[in-house]
Q: What sequence folds into this?
């Protein structure tokens, strides 16, 4: 027994609405921690959409890697940075917003045109789960890439530990070396004033 | 066209899961006595008194654990098709998966020896 057409349509609409809603929440959330948690919602909705496209392995990988690992890493990175600043408004902020809007709308138009113009080839669907097929391929013709993947993971693990332990000194770049986009935004008020304000409001 | 079978149970499960907190909180809001007091506003009614702000800097150690976890999470994704197709793969695939795990155990031993898994 599989899902009927109507159920599929309703599920697709609900999942799409969830993905768009969570994505808007990521952008509009007042705190970056909320954005991090809402990003997990976006990833989960994407996993559901993959499942609707019969890609069960991609859906499982999405839940395991993106929701389970990447989102946790993002949240830990957020929690490592404890300060909350209030930033001064950027100069020419409207110009930046305008350029971003133009680029995003252009990308959206491009993707829409591509989706409409592509002759989607509906192949005869294989009745088995893609995980079984993938497992068979992994241990026959793609055996060497499979074993090399473990070496790659080993390199990533050791590299991450070496970087995180800071066993070597990273040359500190001066303030003048930073380009426009890398420079920290000016703060509206200094940290000590903010602390004093926090104490006084209690 | 959806062809994978067995996912209607997942759908029902998800619907029940999302209904459960709504029903629990709704029933609690309906049935709980409406009393206002200073004790009611405390975080843990008969627990420890929380102090300081919730927004604090977390220890870098958590990040190390998360990094190691990401690697072994990806390993799990690679082993998942092997586990599902295990009964039709045979002994050779079992040995190959053991080699795969053995290479990653080297990384785990390295992390262990370097103290990435310890609290200091």
A:
């Amino acid at each position: 027994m599989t899902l009927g057409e109507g159920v599929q349509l309703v599920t697709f609409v609900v999942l799409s609405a969830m993905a768009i809603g969570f994505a808007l929440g990521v952008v509009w959330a007042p705190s970056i921690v909320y954005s991090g948690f809402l990003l997990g919602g976006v990833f989960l909705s994407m996993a559901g959409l993959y499942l609707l496209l019969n890609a069960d392995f991609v859906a499982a990988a999405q839940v395991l890697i993106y929701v389970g690992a990447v989102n946790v890493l993002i949240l830990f990175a957020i929690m490592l940075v404890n300060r909350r600043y209030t930033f001064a408004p950027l100069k020419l902020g409207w110009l930046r917003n305008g350029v971003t809007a133009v680029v995003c709308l252009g990308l959206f138009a491009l993707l829409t045109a591509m989706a409409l113009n592509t002759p989607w080839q509906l192949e005869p669907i294989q009745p088995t789960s893609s995980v079984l097929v993938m497992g068979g391929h992994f241990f026959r013709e793609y055996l060497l890439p499979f074993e090399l993947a473990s070496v790659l993971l080993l390199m990533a693990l050791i590299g991450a530990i070496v970087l995180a332990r800071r066993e070597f000194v990273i040359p500190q770049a001066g303030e003048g070396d930073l380009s426009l986009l890398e420079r920290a935004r000016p703060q509206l008020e200094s940290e000590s004033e903010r602390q004093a304000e926090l104490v006084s409001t209690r | 066209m959806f062809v994978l079978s067995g996912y209607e149970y997942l759908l029902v499960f998800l619907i029940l899961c999302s209904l459960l907190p709504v029903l629990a909180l709704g029933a609690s809001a309906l049935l709980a006595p409406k009393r206002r007091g200073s004790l009611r506003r405390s975080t843990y009614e008969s627990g420890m008194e929380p102090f300081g702000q919730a927004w604090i800097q977390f220890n870098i150690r958590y990040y190390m654990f998360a990094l190691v976890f990401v690697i072994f999470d990806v390993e799990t994704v690679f082993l998942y098709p092997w586990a599902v197709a295990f009964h039709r793969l045979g002994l050779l695939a079992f040995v190959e998966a053991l080699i795969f795990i053995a290479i990653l155990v080297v990384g785990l031993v390295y992390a262990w020896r370097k103290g990435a898994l310890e609290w200091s």
In short: Chain A touches chain B through 52 residues (CB under 8 Å). The two ends of chain A are 61 Å apart (CA to CA).
